[in-house]
Structure formats: structure tokens, C-alpha cells
Design goal:
nine-stranded mixed beta sheet, three-stranded antiparallel beta sheet, 16 strands, about 30% helix, about 25% strand, globular
Length: about 400
């Protein structure tokens, strides 16, 4: 297993250099191939994909066509590597100190979990989370000797309004808090230090065992929950004279709950109530996107209902202009919810775009800063004999960050 993980890091990460140009908000659309039932029935596709012009055309039952512009189209014949290439700039920017977020949104059964996680046993079918981990550790291996990195992983599940830490076996209800210094955070959440891709893979296995799933007609393993996979990347540059330059960025992957209709799920009342709660959470998410988009069309500042849902509350940092956020909208070749998913991409593209560096300078810097608790303490170099190397950076137990006004 360890050899397979190391080979995956070398194969996926390669020798690509990190692009220093900030990545703006974007939309990637991925259409899965027909499943067995759709192939047997022979249902015609209600979408047309133009991978050259990045256009998606939805064809309604009455023949009416609607066109939607996206930033990247990933067709049914595309591989997991092709899908990851569409969001790789987010990973590259996170290594340079910019916050990054990938939001996977779509109907139940459209391939969200396959896109995000994939097959944990086959490196060719690794999803975006593991491929991003391969990129991160591959970059660390080729980084300068004066750089020290610390990578931590946390996994959060939101189920029926309850916030759970999926890396813990006990079911504890955590709270989403906000402070002027650290912003929105989950109180009591564990952050586990990871040293390679295999560590990330094992933690994802633990999270899958602790995740709540149900069975519906649309999916045998339907996860109507929202899951956050957060990689915290702390980098210290020892080449700087005096205090080292320290940056702390967050690379977040979010799997939104699947949108589906009760008449299509046809399950007991308890699961139907869960579907209703999921629909309410998705409606709040849509309202937040609409409010953020309307702020760009008017000089008046509009209220954004982040607190109406724990999902949108925790996404507040990722939906800010300071974060490189990309959404991956997953659709099927013939689905009733395709039009709704495409309309979601239109709202998402209206969000403001102005990412900033989550960098730190020495405490004598005159820039305005915010201070927050240090979440990772082990600085590591993957390619030397001592993966754990302590660093007296002068910022513990506090970690300094620049804050954009």
C-alpha cells in the first residue's frame, strides 16, 4: 500500500511548477456516462456538451433549448485524471498560500462521491481529494531545503443540523462558532497531521465508516449529508533573515448533499423527512449565492443569510472573495434535476473574485493582522531522514495572518 501511494504521488504530481497567478471563482461541469438502467431503457440524453466552447445545452421535453456557459466541461468519456486537471490550479494556489475550495454539487446518483473520493484501492480511480494530496506531497518532495511543511486533515459531516467529527468513532455534537480573530470554525474539531498520501487515504476510510448513509431508489448508498474535507497547509520559509516567513492556507473539498425529489426516492417517512431537511439546506445555499451575486449589481449592501444553515455558515470563509473557489457540478445524461443544477452554476459564476495571500510576516510588520490558534505543530520535510523536525518560529502558540479589509 505504501509503495502504491508513493508511486501515485510521483505519477500524479509530476514536475509541474506552481502557478503564482491567482485563480478566480469558476465552474466545472462533469456529466457521467449512462448507468445500467438508463442503457437498458435507452433513454435519450437531454444535454449536449461542447467541450471546445465550454457550453452546455439543456433540451427540455417540449424541445426548448437553454444554453449555459461554464469554465470547463468534462464529458462522460473523461477519466478521473481529466476531472482533477480542471481543479488542479486550486491546489497549486493553496501551495503558494491562497485559500482554496472545491464544492461538488449535483443530484443524488450523479457521481459526486466518485468525483471527490473515487476508488481508494485503485490509484487510477483516485478522486480529487487523494489526487490533491498527491500533488501536495509531490510538491513538498521537490521543495527547497529551507522550506518546512505541516499538513493536517480534518473531516466534518453535517447531518440533520448536527455537526460531527468523522475522524472520531464517538458521535459528538460539535458547534460552529465565529470570532473576530479566527472567523468561522468548528469548536472541538480534531486536526490530524498527515505525512503522505497513504495517511490521507486511511483517514478517509475512517471517515467513510463513520458517515451516515441511507438507501433510496436513486442510490443504494445515498449520503444526504454535507461533508467537508479540509487540508491545512502550513509552510515556513527559513531562508528569510530573522523570523521565518510562515503561510497557512486551507484547501477544502465540500460534497454537498444530493438534491432529489421525494416522489423519486419513494422511501419511508423518516428518510423523506431527511430529504426535506436536505432541500431546505440547499435552498439556503441558493439564497446565499443569490444574495452574494446581487451585491455585485447594486451599491447597497444586502444581508447574506449565512447563519440560516450550518452548511452555509461553515462555507462563509470559502464563499468570500479572498478564497479561490471552484464548483464541480455533476449531472446525468437524462435527469429531471439537470436544469436546476445548470441554473446553480449561473448563480455561482456571479460571485466576486479577488483572492489574497494568507501569508504571515514577522510580528513587527505594520500590516493589519488577525491572530488565531495554531492548528498544526509538526513541521516536516518528506524527503529527508527526519520527517518530524521542530521549528521555533516565534509564533506559537499564536499564528499570525494578514487580513483583507
Amino acid at each position: 500500500m505504501a509503495a502504491a501511494g508513493a508511486a501515485a504521488e510521483a505519477t500524479i504530481a509530476g514536475d509541474d511548477r506552481v502557478d503564482v497567478n491567482p485563480l478566480h471563482f469558476g465552474v466545472v461541469l462533469r456529466c457521467r456516462p449512462p448507468n445500467r438502467r438508463e442503457a437498458e431503457v435507452g433513454l435519450p440524453s437531454n444535454v449536449r456538451l461542447d467541450t471546445e466552447a465550454n457550453m452546455v445545452t439543456h433540451v427540455a421535453e417540449d424541445g426548448k433549448e437553454r444554453e449555459f456557459q461554464v469554465d470547463r466541461v468534462v464529458g462522460p468519456e473523461a477519466t478521473q485524471a481529466d476531472a482533477h486537471e480542471a481543479i488542479r490550479p486550486v491546489v497549486q494556489q493553496a501551495l503558494m498560500g491562497y485559500d482554496g475550495c472545491v464544492v461538488v454539487y449535483g443530484e443524488t446518483g450523479s457521481g459526486k462521491n466518485h468525483t471527490l473520493i473515487g476508488d481508494l484501492e485503485n490509484p487510477e480511480l483516485f478522486g480529487m481529494v487523494l489526487r490533491a494530496a498527491c500533488d501536495v506531497f509531490g510538491h513538498i518532495k521537490t521543495a527547497a531545503d529551507t522550506c518546512r511543511y505541516s499538513i493536517a486533515l480534518s473531516v466534518v459531516e453535517m447531518h440533520r443540523g448536527a455537526v460531527q467529527d468523522l475522524l472520531r468513532t464517538e458521535r459528538t455534537h460539535l458547534r460552529v462558532r465565529e470570532s473576530p480573530e479566527t472567523g468561522v470554525f468548528v469548536q472541538g474539531l480534531s486536526h490530524t497531521i498527515v505525512h503522505n498520501t497513504n495517511d490521507v487515504r486511511e483517514l478517509i476510510r475512517v471517515a467513510h465508516r463513520n458517515e451516515v448513509v441511507e438507501t433510496t431508489r436513486m442510490s443504494r448508498r445515498s449520503a444526504n449529508t454535507c461533508v467537508f474535507y479540509d487540508l491545512t497547509i502550513e509552510r515556513a520559509d527559513l531562508a528569510r533573515e530573522g523570523e521565518p516567513l510562515v503561510t497557512c492556507s486551507q484547501l477544502r473539498f465540500v460534497r454537498m448533499p444530493g438534491c432529489q425529489k421525494i416522489r423519486k426516492s419513494a422511501m419511508p417517512a423518516e428518510i423523506n423527512r431527511l430529504i426535506c431537511q436536505t432541500a431546505k439546506s440547499l435552498n439556503t445555499f441558493s439564497n446565499v449565492l443569490s444574495a452574494l451575486g446581487e451585491q455585485q449589481d447594486t451599491t447597497r449592501r444586502r444581508f447574506v443569510p449565512y447563519r440560516d444553515s450550518p452548511v452555509t455558515y461553515l462555507l462563509k470563509r470559502s464563499l468570500s472573495p479572498n478564497c479561490n473557489t471552484v464548483t464541480v457540478a455533476t449531472i446525468g445524461p437524462n435527469s429531471d434535476e439537470t436544469l436546476g443544477t445548470l441554473r446553480y452554476t449561473t448563480r455561482f459564476r456571479r460571485l466576486p473574485r479577488a483572492p489574497v495571500l494568507c501569508g504571515t510576516l514577522c510580528p513587527t510588520c505594520q500590516e493589519r493582522m488577525s491572530v488565531g490558534p495554531c492548528r498544526a505543530t509538526a513541521w516536516c520535510r518528506i524527503d529527508d531522514g527526519d520527517p518530524f523536525r521542530s521549528l521555533s518560529c516565534g509564533f506559537c502558540p499564536l499564528q499570525w495572518r494578514h487580513r483583507r479589509r
